[in-house]
Amino acid sequence: MRRSVSLSNTLTLVRVGMRDLRGDKWGLTGLCMMLSFVVIALLVPYFPLYDPWEQSGADVIAPPSWNHPFGADIYGRDVFSRVLWGTRVSLGLGVLAALTSFFVGAVIGSFAGYYGGFLDDIMTRFIDVFIIIPRVILLILVAALIGTEVWYMALFIGLTMWASTARIARAQVITFKERGFVKAAALLGAGDVRLLFLHILPNGIYPAISNTTLQVADAIMTEAGLSFFGLGDKNVITWGQIINMGMLSISSWWLVVFPGAAIALMVLAFNLLGDSLELRLKPRLLR
Amino acid sequence: MLDIADLSVVYRGYRGVLKAVDKVSLAVEDNEVFGITGESGCGKSTLAASILRVLPQSAEVTSGRILFRGIDLRSVSEAEMRKIRWKQISIVFQNAMNALDPVYKIKDLLKEPLRVHEGMPDEETKRRVGEVLNLVRISQSRMDSYPHELSGGTRQRVMIAMALICRPQLVIADEFTTGLDVIVQDQILADIEDLRQKLGFAMILITHDLSVILEACDRVAVMYGGRILETADSKSILQDPRHPYTRALLDSMPTIRDAKKKLRSLSGSPPDMLNPPTGCRFMSRCTFATQLCQTDPPNLQVGVGRYSRCHYALDQGFKRR
Amino acid sequence: MSKLFAVRKGLIEIISSRQTRYIHAVNGVDLQIGLGENFGLMGESGSGKTTTALMIAGVERPTEGRVFLDGVDIWRLKSSELKAMRKRVQMIWQDPYDSLDPRLDVYHTLEEPLIIHGIGETKEKRLDIVSKALQSVDMAPSEYIGRRPFELSGGQRQRVCIARALTTKPEFLILDEPVSMLDMSVRAGILDLLLELRKREGLTYLFISHDLAVMRYMTDRMSVMYLGMIVESGATEGIIENPMHPYTQALFSAVPDPRVKRQRAPVIGESPDLTDLPKGCNFHARCPRRMEICRTVGPRLFSATKTHVVACHLYH
After folding, report:
1. Residues of C in Cβ contact (< 8 Å) with B39
2. Domain C3-273 class?
3. Boundaries of every domain in chain C
4. Partner of B243 for a Cys bridge, out of A153, B85, B230, C282, CB 3.0 to 4.6 A?
5. Rounded mean pLDDT, A175-192
6. Contact (Cβ atoms closer than 8 angstroms) between residue B243 and residue B186
7. What ipTM was assigned to the predicted interfaces of this complex?
8. Could you tell me if A16 lies within 8 Å of chain C, comparing CB atoms?
9. pTM for the whole thing?
10. What architecture does CATH give domain B2-88+168-308?
């Protein structure tokens, strides 16, 4: 019974969100862009492209041409192919990082907000620590200690991002704890778990969701930055990696511009989507 | 003094057009207390806001005239309107906590209308502020307080002071005692009546509390579904209501002074103002409704200055069924 | 004969961190409500009536004093026993627009207490209980069971809240201003429904309101609260006929009524701050009949007649 309630309500939520999206030009744009990236990521193995790892002595640092639309890098590898393949890892990494951030942040923030008191004080300080410490430094440390394998990096990027989600979740839980229907449910005999997971969070989690959407873009940017400094995983193709390679040949603009544009577009897509979600989801279900 | 004829106001939203006020007509004389009563959603607050042209962006006046001393308030320019606002017609809102700017002291809040509307120099404003505080019985020591330091009743008195400081001829009071304790409400109503006698202004009192309206007002208009259903003097409304809705409202009020009586309530809910019904707005909840009520009732004159929008208004009384 | 017995004292809250000041929300209140009684608690905002109700309901912990339900101190119960108690004591809140989870439809809202307490083992049984609950508040199940709160009017929402409270077959219902936020024409319907339900199900009511007229219509016995203390208690009709405490008298005369020519409430000024209560009688600063003793000594409740008690020096 509980599960079916959540399911039907999520579906309503999606339905409602979609309905309004039709009038929201920017949100719709963001959604379309994101879906395009997803499609590319899923279908790229079926595209007729150069093998992204195939090296070619003849094409070393070849500028964009009919043959290589985005040019070739210092190993003669086709940049167009690499950029498209890079979508998979970049997207996957962004989503993994954001999801990690969401779960850690939501759990910590919710508990802090719900139980209040001393526990809340401690957790808030803990959250503040993660806000203050510069993420990049932390990640460089992690890279040094654990290595640069991409999925670990994704996880750890997520583990440095959760603080903002936590603050949002905490504020929402505190607000919703005071709402009449929550107090009424408590008086009916509902326990803490029921109150949190069936009443408070389903109604209050939306700002955290839209924040997380924005964090996908943030994670991709972070990875790009780390790769640029050489801390990325050399065994996979990410846009940051492509740019990193581009550094070795500064005058070859195509090695930077195309992957850079891809990053910018992805970030734009998620920002548009995130902003739109924030507007759409909030007031709809509250009265 | 104020003559509203066939006023209609709508709100345009993504769900459609909401007809908040539908062909409303009323007239307020000099020094009169005119009451507008009705339940939530009947359009009374929209009506008040439209007089002073302080409606929100989504609202639009689609027809009608608002004549104030011969001036058509709908057609004057915004600059002209600003001269009328506050100096000739002012308004007191419900819930002063939300209406008073919390970062200003009381004396500064009160000085503002004088500065803006009368261009008064600073030394003179001080005197006028002191005067008006006296009128509303707030001690001078409160001049330097902030709104949140005052009690609810005192804040409401500050709102009244602000409304009176430019000596308007008409004051609109929109639910201005709702939310206050009954003792404080009583004091404020008594004080404002004294002020009215002393300063000489007319008042439009808007509230959903029927007993307050009938006690404090000379004449009353009962609103429902964006329309005025009955207009009459208070005594007549009380003793001889000529509309089933008025009758129902009177029957739903519990008393403490008379013998205990069984209350009557209305089933159903107010009409959907996005798609108001054709015919009488009140029909779906009226115990006296007949086939005839499917056509829109005309505004029948029942007596001198008495009107009712009911096909059966001229028959005597709507005794309980 | 089993009796509901509530005895409690002050609730104190810390409001300022620099120097601990206390809000004496409820200050030494004793109440007794008998089984099947229809009891009213009257007071304006700041009188402590809602806080008192919350302490009785087991939501707000009293700083001092106890609350007994059938001789059992509810604040000493273990959590499992407390949960069982929640089946017996239910509450209707003031704001019907905030008391329902906006995401749940009427069925799931009413089903929740059943799930929490394990009432009705099968879906069919639960549906049956829910339908009967809706019928008891005059709402046709077929029409309302799938609706969401935003599709309901204020009066309908409140009826759903009442139905929800009834699903666990409670004995004691606390009603905190259940009609204050509803339109006048709808109030009478809800009030009559509540009166009828009480008779039919044999419930005990604690009815809280700031409206003297509603109190008269709804209750048999009542207490008047002012600034956290009870100032007058007795049969409702008795208090209406003969209000003894000056505060009650002021309340009475302040109620507007176009049918009578009334005296204005003879009271000065406004209620004092709850953190800064005066010595002696709480009301003395505003009382038109105060005496010298009222400034220094707080009056105790004492019996004026067999059924009427007052806390005022005038009657000693």
Report:
1. 183-185
2. alpha beta
3. 3-273
4. B230
5. 90
6. no
7. 0.83
8. no
9. 0.84
10. 3-Layer(aba) Sandwich (3.40)
